[in-house]
């Protein structure tokens, strides 16, 4: 059942990004436990802060997720991390 979706995601990074952003933000929004929300946000921060391979698609997706979380409840990532990852990945 998921095989066609997997094939599309593997073939198109734009669709993969759209899907991951949507799934992550929906899971985040539906989570009522603030500790779990904090852990999800901290995980995203850790991915960005510890990134050493600056793949455009991955960093762009993480930035988009961070932006959606900001819209949901004011979640923020350190601006220096966003700047560093954006510059290195060419994700402006």
What does this structure look like?
- It contains five helices and no strands.
- It is an all-alpha fold and 92 residues long.
- Helix 1 (3-11) packs across helix 2 and helix 2 (13-30) runs parallel beside helix 4.
- It is flat and about 35 Å long.
Helix content range? over 70%
Count of individual beta strands: 0
Mean of the pLDDT scores? Answer: 92
- Count of individual helical segments: 5
**Largest sheet composition:** none
Note the gap between the termini.
Answer: 36 Å
List the helices and strands and how they pair.
Blueprint: H1 3-11, H2 13-30, H3 34-49, H4 56-73, H5 79-89
Helix pairs in contact: 1-2, 2-4, 3-4, 4-5
Task: Using brief descriptors, characterize the structure shown.
mainly alpha; 5 helices
């Amino acid at each position: 059942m998921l095989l066609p979706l997997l094939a599309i995601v593997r073939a198109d990074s734009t669709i993969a990004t759209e899907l991951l952003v949507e799934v992550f933000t929906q899971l985040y929004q539906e989570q009522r436990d603030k500790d779990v929300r904090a852990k999800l946000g901290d995980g995203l921060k850790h991915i960005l802060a510890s990134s050493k391979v600056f793949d455009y698609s991955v960093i762009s997706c993480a930035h988009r997720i961070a932006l959606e979380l900001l819209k949901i409840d004011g979640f923020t990532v350190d601006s220096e991390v966003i700047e560093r990852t954006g510059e290195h990945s060419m994700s402006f």
